[in-house]
Structures are given as structure tokens and as C-alpha cells.
Amino acid sequence: MITRYSRKTIVIGIIAALLGMVSFAYAQQAGDVLFKAMQDELDRSMSQLVMENLERPYFVSYTIDDAQQLEVHANLGTLTQSNLDRGRYLSIDLRVGNYSLDNSNFVSGYSGFGADYAQLPIDNNYDAVRNQIYLQTDQVYKDALETISKKRAYLQTRVIANRPDDFLKLPVNRILDKSEEFDLNKAKFEELAKAATVVFRDYPDIISSDLKIQAAIANQYLLNSNGTRALRGDRIYIFDLSMMGKAADGEDIFDGDRIVYNSLAAIPSVGDLTAWAKANADRMSKLIKADTLEEYIGPAVFTADAAGEFFRQLFVRNISNLPQPTYENEQMAAMIGRAGGGGGEFAEKLNRRVLPASFTVYDDPTIGKVGSSPVIGGYNVDDAGNTPQKVVLVENGKLVNLLIGISPTKKIKDANGHARGAVGKLITAKPSNLVFESSEKVPYAKLKEALITLCKDVDLPYGLIVKRLSDPNASIGSFTIRMGNRMMRGSGGSGAPEALSSPWEIYKVYPDGREEPVRGLQFNNVTVRILKDILQTDDQMFVYNYLLNADPEMPASIVTPSVLIEEMELKKNEEKIMKPPLLPSPLAGK
Amino acid sequence: MKRTRSAGLLLTAILLLTVSSLYAVEQSPLLTAMKTELDRSVRTLGHADSVPMYFLSYQVTDTDRRTISASYGAIIVDDHSRSRILDIDLRFGDYRLDNTREIRGSYDYSFSNSGPTMLPLQDDEKAIRTAIWEATDDKYKTELEQYTKVKTNQDVMVEQEDTSADFSVEKPNVFVGTTVAVTCDTAAWETRLRELSGIFKDYPFVEKSSVDLSITNDNRYFVSSEGSSIQQGQCYVRMSVFCSGTCTDGMQIQRYEGFDAATTDGLPADSVVVKTIHRLVGELEVLLKAPLAEPYSGPAILLNRATGVYFHEIFGHRIEGHRQKSETEGQTFAKKVNQKILPDFISVIDDPTLSEFNGKFLRGHYLYDDEGVKTEKVTVVDNGILKNFLMSRSPVRGFPVSNAHGRKQAGLSVVSRQGNLMIRSSKELPFDSLLALLKEECRKQGKPYGLIFNDISGGFTSTGRYGPQAFKVIPLLVYKYYTDGRPMEAIRGVDIVGTPLASFEQIIATGNDYDVFNGTCGAESGSVPVSAIAPSILVASLEVEKKFKEQQKPPILPPPYKPIKTSGIY
Questions:
Q1: Chain A / chain B CB contacts < 8 angstroms
Q2: pTM
Q3: Beta partners for A350?
Q4: Predicted confidence (pLDDT) at residue B498 exceeds the cutoff of 90
């Protein structure tokens, strides 16, 4: 995932290696044992694993994710949770049939959504590791035989026009990265979390807050029957802040921020993290006191974070996970599609306009920076052992290519290094560092002026600037259930969530340029077609870091300017408002 | 070979004696912070609305757990976790009718707005109080709304059959007990578990296996508006051994044994664990080759610990007080008080005050329940006559007060649960006599064999009115005991089924071999540690049916390493 190291990281890596030969040796040994156990069992499986008169596997790939993970939660200067885990997980892609038709890409009942995995010993014990690989391979092989018989039966009775092949011929690679050392220091992150959240003691208006620090170091060992062998070392540090308060009328106000780093050297100092927390708390205090607005139909600007989240929800979702699997049950397919697990609206839009003609979009896993800003979505080898490639997706507003994982689509048949997955999740086509470039760009001040001019044209006293959208995928600590309730209500009871999540931070902008925060709004009638209503962008490139499927194993970046959209529709939150707290917070007074 | 390994393990055991236990006997600042916020809430919220908030309690469960799991000589898991979870009981109305009353005629989907409240792990008064304050405010509003629903439901529905109050009046308790912080020498334990789990490598028919250690320090803090203030701690240490395999017809067989104690020092020596591993492996091998049993109805013996599980499942759950009250429950025993429900030589007692039995640790021991009521010995059945139920503070007809069986897992609501369930008999026979009686009973009924249930894993019992109020218990190890002197024969693939009232009438006699089953019981209020103490019993008739069978064949290839032995020792 994140294997693009800045020069500084590499230098530090070398020093660490010199200072700690012991732990470096350990990592070497882990790789030796794991690769040997995988290779020996792979050889045996390919030559001997066969059930009576049934078919043998035609392809087997083993992936071991060897990880150290930390999750620390803090509020008001105290910890509420702190766990450091060590785990090794085996995922197997075993295929029976042939490249054109195999046991993959088929959802039958509840199976086919995710990927099975097995927990492996964390000791470098060849026998014990290999035994688990053997048991899991046996299980996966039997499941594969069952799935392919169901799939063949299903396809026999249906006409599916030019169904793409199930699997593409993966090139043979040998990409051996440096493994990362498991050096997560729990006490250090606990102290950081406690120190940074002390500031919230001065904000009694913020009813609750939670700083979640998630850190993960993972070495991924991959080996397949084509002869590919890959090792990738990743590390990631995520600081997720969530805040909840109540407006005077009782409305729940949520806000938060997330910062992500992929090197230990990059993570903020106590001072910087505290300043970040304080800036968030200050903004939240203002949002709590903001005015409400009944409704708004008119032009809007999405800046920085909000522009990133805007493209993620409307663009990334539709470019990911293609091709879609075949569902045995059509109702299930409809349900999954609606719930947002599917996406992929761009599957049929190749060579058609998806953005204004001024736009070029590319995805590039090979870069570590855009301009001078670091991005976190890159890797040296993807989750299927492929070499990453830059892919131009949109040219002059037209969709010209697709991201490819391990399955070809109807028109694009070759791997382009975008196979991404995680423990327990299928490997599918997903973006890495997605860059949006526009030729219709002006300085931000001009973009704001353009917004005001548009408002004047339609007699609106003010326009709207959206600076932050809620992240519908994020797990936001103890607020998850409350937020979930809001999202359900946001769907207006139809069950289908709005294509764009609730704005957290939104401002009225008056003709004189003055900005005033407003609250209590949600988007209405947003569809993917709104991408074509982008009029202009500013000339800055902002990096928005996020996690695909909220999974720390799949960090990604969106690089985008701020965008001006011709018309957005917003309405008042339809949520039942609870009265404000009956007692003052213990933090207030005394 | 075997001898040298055992010696090595003994050495490890000696090193492990350095394990430390820490105890504290002073009031925790956490309890003080809880009390301060409770007082403020009661003072200000007690009469804030037209309906009085007549009761408020806070409970904080501080759980510190270490789990180490090893398989095939390697560590799989080594985890440590800690949490503090807050539970609030907040009541509007009065003891007679409050917001907790069951809403009849519909399922009630309403639940609290937020998930469990996680409190700070440090004793920081302001931070703790802020978290409690927010959760209380949320709970107050949710429960006030619930109270209105209850009132409306009362007005539109017919009068309930049982008109008991919603909450019993109890004497408040103040108790500052010791808190626990048992730790272990992780490295030494890892070594020990590696060695022990490596023994399974000798047996190619063992598919999955593990040797685990878990240490759970459970410290509970309780304050209520009635004046209760309780601090208590209990450590649960469990070492367990597990193995499983697949029969040629696809049936999964598993064997398990757990050792429970209050400290790691209370766990058995390696020699005992090694012996247990060999026994389980032997049983597994026998069962893998055992014939499939046919449905059968006839005499049977349930060995002591199997009897404990059997009683826990089919009897214990039916004497839980709240099941006599809810209008959706079967209320098997609700109207049988002072009537004979068991043979007159059997008494049933639940006594959480006991911390051990014949030197064995009891997981079902506690001093105060999760509603702050002090534990006592409860005689449920006296010589066959039903006398009492296991009561929380939710009264049922004729039983207006609690007997300290209100229990729960952190984050859930209390219902009445079992603690240490004891089956006492006045018709105790030596086990040989019980076997002779079994043979005689078979002859009487014209059966060529009886069944002996050696081990039962647990079961399902449906006490609700919607489904059949029957039970199913899952035996793990069953033998055919032939009347013609043939050796016992292990069988597999049966479940015990029946209806409770009919089954109890069938008990003919019991053994004198009381033993303890320690386990974790799951029900509406979550997982709680329990014990069951019972002698072996002989039943005139017990019915077994074919159990669900997995269809997947055993592994196609043999294990990748060379096993040392090819057959088990039994």
C-alpha cells in the first residue's frame, strides 16, 4: 500500500536498521519461514490437491499479512481504550475452472461478498504455519468446487451477453520490498492522545469528543502459482477526531477531522497535535452557535476537504470494484447496489462524458507526492503482485480507461496495477492516488467572486461554501450509532441514502465576501450527473487522504482543486431534535 | 520420549510460580466520582419533569483481559485489552409502575441512542463525570419517553395476569471490597503453552487444536440513589485445551476441557494438563471411528458434570424469576409453587456465596449482584417441592423481593440469572450401584443397552410461547452400555431432546459423586460466569435424536509434517 518513502524516511530506516540489527534479522527470518511454508504447501496443492474425480485448482495465490496494529482512544486528557495487537492472516485465492470461467465473481446467498481468511501463528514456526496453510487450503478448495458447480448451473439457464473472462493472466513478478519493523510504541501514542485532548476540557459546549489514533505496520508476503513472489512493507498512522455538541435548539452538531501519515517521522509533535485539536475545537464552538437555514437552491463551492469527499462519494465509488460480480439472486444484487456496496456506475460509460470537458483525471500509485504535497495511496506492488501503473481515466471530460484489478472488463483486458484488497475483503479494482486537473482554473478569490456573481444573477442574497462533508465510511467512535440514525433519517425513509453525505461545515457567503457558518442542512436530489455541472475550479491542488472501505490497509488520496457547481439543492435536516442537556457539563464552572 | 517432555514442562511450571497478584482494599476514586455525579443528577433531575425520576444507579465494569492462545507449538494470539463500561438504571414513576414495564402486544424496538459508554481508564474525576453526565442526559430523555409509552400501553391493554410491581424495595448496601489485578509472566506462559500445544502434532487425525490461557480481572463499582455504594472484584482464570477432527462422513467431532481458578497458581500442574490432552485425543480418536447412533429412547446415566449442564439448561433457566412474569414466556413453573416438580429425593439450591466446592473454584460466585443486592443461599426446590425462584429486583407474584440473582454482562440490562446451581440428592448411591440399576432398568424395559452421557457441551432451551417449549442438549461423548456384558461402545451423532416437566419425572436415583461444571452462560443479559454442581443421575427414559451433521469431508491431503505417533493413548 504505502511503499513510497520520502528520502528522509529511507535515511531513518537505514539508521534504524544499523541500530537494531536484531529486529531486522527477525523480519528476515519471518519472511524466510513464511515464504518457505507458502511455497512448499503451494507446490503440494498444485500437484496433489484433488478431490476424487473433480477438477484441480488451476491457480493458487497465498497472501500473508503480518501486522502490528494499535488503536488508542482518548478524550479530555484520558484514555478510554488502548489496544496493541499482533496478528498474521492468511488469504487464499484458489481457482478451479479456467481463465474464462472460474469460481470467482459469483455471489451466491451470503457467500462471495468477502474473502475467507485464517489466523496464522505469530511465531516463526514453519510446521505450525504450514499446518494452518494446509487446513485453510483444503477448506478453500472445497468451497471453490461448490461455488463453481453453482455458478455453472446458474449460467446454463441464463443468457448473459458478452460476459467478460473471470480472471486475467497476471504477469510474473518478483518485487521484494523491505519489510517494516514492528516498532509501534503504545505508551508514546497514549501520551500523545492524552496530551492533545486536554484542550477539550476548556470547551464545555462540546458534549463529547473522541480522538482515535490508529496505527498499523504490516508486511505483506505474496506468492502465487504463476511464480510471482512479492513482499511489501507498509506503515500508517491515522488521527481521527470526532466531536459532538448541541445547538441552543437541541440540534446535534457533529464535526471532525482526520490526518493520515505513512512515516513515523511525519507524525506531528505533541504541540502540533494539540494545536490541531484546538483549531478543531474552536471551529466546532462556532458551528454550535451557527444559524439555521430552511433550504437553499443555488450555486455552491466545495473547497479542499469537501471537494475531496465530494469526488470520493461521486467518482471513486463509481470507478471502483469493476467488473461487478454475477449475483445468483437478483434481489440481493439490487439491495447491495442500493446500499452503496456496489457503485460502479461508470462500467458502461467508457468513451462517454462524465465530467466537464476541462477535466483530466488520472490515478497514479507510483507517486509519493503531487507537487510538494505527500500523498498516501501509493505502493510498489499491488495486492495481487502486479506492478503499479499510472492510468489516465478521464481526458477532456471523457472516460477513456478503467482501473483493473484481477478481472478484465468487457473492453479492458490487461492488469494495470490497481488490485487492492485487505484481510477478509475481496481483491478488486480500486484507486490509489487519484488526481483531478482542470484547465478552467482561476485563483480562489476569483472562484468566490464567480459564486457571488452567479448568486446575483438569480437574486440570491448569498451563496454557499461547503468546507467539510461527513465521511459516511468512517467509524467515528462512540458516535457511530447516533450518526447512523441521522444517515437513516437523511434518506427520507426510502432506504436509499442520499448520494452525498451531510455537510459538517458550511458557510453563507455574502456579496461583500463575508462568511457566516450555517447548520442543520443536508443535500437533496444529488446524482452522479452533478459532476458535469462543475463550472470552474481554483488553481490550488489539495490532498485529501482517506481509507478505502474505512480500512487502514487501503489508504488512498484524492488530489483536487476547489470546485464551483452551478446548482446544489439543500434542505433542513429532518431529524427529531432532543432538548439540550438538562444539567450543565461538569466541565463548566466550578 | 514422552517422559522427557513432561520433565521439561515441570521445570517450566516451577518458573511460573513467580506469578504475582496484587490486591487493593481502599475505595477507588472512580467510585467517588460516580457518587458525586449521581448526587448531582438526583438533586437536580429528581423532580425536573412532572413525572419523578425515583431511582438512579450507575454501574461501572472495569475489565482487564489477557488471552494467550497456542496451537501446534506456536503462539496464535497474545492479546491484552482493558475497558470501563458504564451502565445506567434510571427509572420514572414509582416502584409499582415504571418505565421498565413490558410493553405488550408489540415488539419494542426502541433502544438507547448511543452504544455502551466507555469511561476513561484513568481515575480522572472531571473526565469520568463528563462521560457519566452525557450518558445520564441521554438515558433520562430516552426513558422519559419510554415511561409515556408504558402509561399508554397500560391504558389500552387488558390487565396483566401478574400485577406485581416493577421494582422491589431493597435495603441499600455499602461495601468496599478488594479489587483484583492478577497478572502473569507472559513469556513463561507463552513457552508453556507452546510446549503443551505441540503435543497435538503427534496425532494426524487432530485437525484443529489449541491450548489457551485467559485471565479476566473483573472489577465492578455500583452506586444508587437509594444509598448503595459497592466496590468488588473477581478474577477469572481459565486454561483450556481443545481439539477437533472430521469423521469420514463429514461429522465434526470436538473435545474440550477447561480448568478454572481465581489465580494462575490455582491452575493444574503440567502433568495434569498433559494427561488431559492425551485423554481428549484418545476420546477424539475413538469418536472419529465410532458408529453413528440411531434415535433411541430408554434408560440412561448422565455423569456428574453432564448432569450439571443438563440441569442448568433445562431446569435452571426455567426458575429465573422474570420468566414467570413476561407475557411472552412459557412460565413453566409460575403456578407450581409449593407443588412437586422433581422427585422427592432431589433439592435444588443456588448459592453464589460459595467460592469453592470440595476445593474446586466456582465461577458462579459473587458477593453482590449487578443491582447491588447481597447474595444469599436460595433453596429453589426442597425435596422435590418448588419453593422459590431466582429473583432480580423485578418481582413476580408471591415473590416481592430480590435474592441477588440480577446479573448481566457490561452494557446490557439485568435479568435474573443462575450463579452456583447445586443439585442435592438424598438418594445417593455409589456409581457401581447406579450402573447396576441402569442394567436392571434396561432389562425391565427390554432394551439391549442403556446410554451413558459423559460430557455435554450445552444446549438450547426455548422458554418462550412462540415456539415449542422444548429443549435440546448437545452431548459430546456418549457410550452404549450393554446389558450382556459386552464392553462399552462410544457412539456419536445424537442430541438429547425432550420437554422439561416430563423429563424430570424420569429421574430414578443419583450417584454420590458430586462434581463442578464451570462455564459461561449466555442469555438476554449477556454472558455471565456460572457453575453447576451435581451428582450423576439415572433416568428411566431419555430420548435422543440424530443431530445435524456437517457435510464436508476430512482434509484431502495428510498433514504436511511427519507425525511422531500414529494412534492415541486411551
A1: 150
A2: 0.88
A3: none
A4: no
